[in-house]
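Good morning,

Attaching, inline, the backbone tokens for the sequence recovery test we're adding to the shared suite. The designed sequence is right after.
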């Protein structure tokens, strides 16, 4: 609990101001008569109705949220709007079991159920079914993943493996960002604002129709975000500027639906490296500015024969160019085609099968820190999958069996089976359990990279004997294998009433052949100053197991107030014999990188038909590897609607502290930074 005696003046002022605003709004609400409140599609729904919202990521077809035999959480458009989140990573903090830690203005570490890092490699992320996982470095570059936040319909977050559906790298979870159909974004929208950290932002969208069967939309957006301060008080040189635009066209003809969608973007960003962790000859520039730019286009065809029979064909092309002199320069492009067919078989079987092919081409230029051999390469991935949902007892007991068969250029064939059982004894209770196998396939970097990582401060038995710095040089290994997981899960959902529900899940994950580090013979480098190069190789000798519990509770005390809370517990045990395990945050010391406890409490209150107050309290426990203490913070958003189609808002972020730390870079020695308190205001106009 917060101790009032220990509250600083800014904290006390914020709390008093919020109380005053709530009191003023309540008085205004009592004085308004004869007016109908503005409809809110999600706050107007009961919790029971929200549990019937349909999702698609768990099985690749629509099903009710309450009937999914997985640990799934849905972040709705209303959740995003009320949270004040200005980016997808910030919105993901709402989901239990998801670790979101900011490294800098444009950099995040995001994972599910452990193994967090800048390039967390056990998480599959998609936008409208288009994979944004980067097989060059194994992970997601979150600064590239964006859209107009108002156009996101929902974000589906699956905790736990779903590789039988989505393939390799869907090891600890899947995140699918789903945007609205063009027919749901008709008319014009303008939004803009700015503040302390969010220096300025603006967005515009226009949706129209060619005829009753063909709808479209176009959007543009841009923002500038301030640089952060390093822990030494310096400018982190990471101010972020973005420009982005895109379109979507949907055409319906009978039982067919055609979609064409595309985006282009440009990001300008920077970084400041900690030269104390690198020997002088390795890097000349401490700070650098860079940019990335790219685009994508997606085509999709759906034919729906019935509620249980459909065909889908989707293809997309994606390209990005990245340039930051201190770290990496590369261009990458990918092509993907996906076919899926669903049909009923006899009376009890619901079968889904499909095939996928992906081509990934990249070209990497040498920098002071990173080089690849060969510099240019093309990789292929081919896969097939099948899934059968068997009804054992109508409306009571269902068994899901399935597997995916992936063939990649690094390890060949990978088989990832899955079995899930769903028991619904009555309309208020459901229990599910699952056993799954998933793999994380090697990235190209793990095969071909040479990375000048960090200067090692001490090596037992070696550093004390030499007056030279020792530079660790990471080298890829052509024999590096896939990391493997066997996961056991169980979950329970209970509907207390139409206004209250709870969702609990527990898991035990058994990992084998995890990436580990080995040491070669040191090499003397005679450049000035003289130093030793310590070759570091990659092996699959580490293992580990994790277990944890995640719970989320929703309650609507009345029609104007919705409370949502979640708690996540994670316990990790990693076994590694590597002499570098104590300085390896990705595996050897991964159990000290993820917080053990996370708590989130959100309150969304419609004080009147014109005024909303949304509060979001978060607690994250310590990250011991980086010596980061636990923190408590709160975001608040006050919304005023002077007119039905005009929204004015003010948002406070990280209100309980002037600044705090959340994470540090792992492979690249970027300076650790403080996450600042921020306030911004803006307006939105729809017509």
């Amino acid at each position: 609990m917060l101790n009032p005696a220990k509250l600083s003046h800014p904290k006390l002022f914020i709390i008093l101001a919020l109380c005053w605003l709530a009191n003023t709004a309540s008085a205004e609400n009592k004085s308004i008569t004869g007016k109908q409140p503005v409809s809110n599609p999600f706050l107007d729904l009961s919790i029971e109705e929200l549990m019937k919202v349909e999702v698609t990521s768990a099985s690749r077809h629509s099903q009710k949220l309450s009937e999914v035999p997985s640990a799934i959480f849905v972040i709705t458009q209303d959740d995003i709007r009320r949270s004040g989140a200005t980016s997808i990573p910030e919105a993901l903090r709402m989901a239990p079991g998801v670790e979101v830690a900011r490294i800098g203005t444009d950099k995040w570490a995001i994972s599910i159920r452990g193994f967090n890092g800048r390039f967390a490699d056990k998480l599959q992320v998609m936008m409208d079914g288009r994979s944004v996982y980067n097989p060059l470095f194994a992970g997601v570059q979150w600064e590239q993943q964006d859209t107009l936040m108002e156009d996101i319909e929902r974000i589906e977050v699956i905790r736990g493996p779903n590789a039988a559906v989505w393939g390799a790298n869907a090891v600890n979870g899947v995140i699918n960002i789903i945007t609205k159909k063009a027919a749901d974004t008709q008319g014009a929208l303008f939004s803009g604002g700015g503040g302390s950290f969010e220096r300025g932002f603006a967005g515009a969208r226009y949706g129209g129709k060619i005829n009753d069967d063909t709808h479209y939309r176009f959007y543009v957006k841009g923002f500038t975000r301030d640089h952060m301060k390093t822990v030494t008080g310096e400018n982190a040189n990471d101010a972020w500027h973005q420009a982005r635009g895109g379109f979507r066209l949907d055409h319906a003809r009978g039982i067919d639906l055609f979609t064409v969608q595309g985006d282009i973007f440009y990001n300008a960003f920077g970084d400041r490296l900690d030269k104390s962790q690198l020997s002088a000859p390795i890097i000349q520039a401490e700070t650098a500015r860079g940019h990335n730019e790219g685009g994508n286009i997606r085509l999709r065809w759906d034919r729906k024969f019935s509620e249980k029979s459909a065909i889908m064909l989707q293809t997309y092309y994606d390209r990005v160019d990245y340039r930051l002199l201190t770290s990496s320069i590369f261009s990458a492009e990918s092509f993907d085609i996906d076919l899926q067919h669903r049909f009923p078989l006899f009376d009890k079987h619901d079968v889904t099968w499909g095939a996928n092919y992906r081509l990934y081409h990249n070209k990497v230029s040498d920098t002071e820190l990173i080089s690849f051999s060969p510099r240019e390469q093309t990789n292929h991935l081919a896969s097939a999958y099948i899934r059968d949902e068997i009804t054992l007892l109508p409306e009571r007991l269902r068994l899901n069996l399935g597997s995916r068969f992936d063939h990649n250029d690094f390890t060949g064939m990978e088989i990832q089976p899955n079995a899930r059982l769903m028991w619904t004894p009555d309309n208020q209770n459901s229990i599910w359990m699952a056993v799954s196998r998933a793999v994380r396939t090697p990235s190209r970097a793990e095969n071909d990279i040479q990375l000048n990582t960090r200067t090692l401060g001490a090596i037992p038995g070696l550093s004390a004997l030499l007056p030279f710095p020792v530079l660790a040089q990471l080298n890829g290994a052509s024999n590096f294998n896939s990391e493997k997981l066997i996961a056991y899960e169980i979950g329970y959902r209970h509907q207390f009433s139409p206004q209250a529900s709870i969702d609990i899940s527990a898991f035990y994950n058994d990992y084998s052949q995890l990436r580990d580090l080995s040491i070669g013979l040191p090499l003397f480098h005679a450049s000035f100053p003289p130093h030793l190069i310590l070759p570091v190789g990659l092996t699959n000798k580490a293992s580990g197991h994790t277990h944890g519990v995640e719970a989320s509770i929703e309650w609507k005390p009345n029609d104007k107030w919705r409370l949502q809370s979640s708690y996540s517990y994670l316990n990790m045990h990693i076994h590694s014999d590597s002499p570098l395990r104590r300085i390896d945050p990705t595996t050897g010391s991964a159990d000290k990188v993820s917080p053990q406890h996370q708590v989130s409490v959100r309150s969304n209150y419609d004080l009147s038909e014109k005024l909303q107050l949304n509060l979001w309290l978060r607690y994250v426990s310590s990250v011991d590897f980086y010596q980061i203490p636990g923190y408590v913070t709160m975001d608040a958003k006050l919304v005023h609607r002077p007119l039905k189609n005009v929204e004015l808002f003010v948002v406070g972020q990280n209100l309980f502290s002037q600044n705090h730390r959340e994470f540090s870079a792992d492979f690249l020695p970027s300076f650790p930074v403080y996450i600042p308190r921020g306030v911004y205001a803006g307006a939105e106009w729809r017509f």
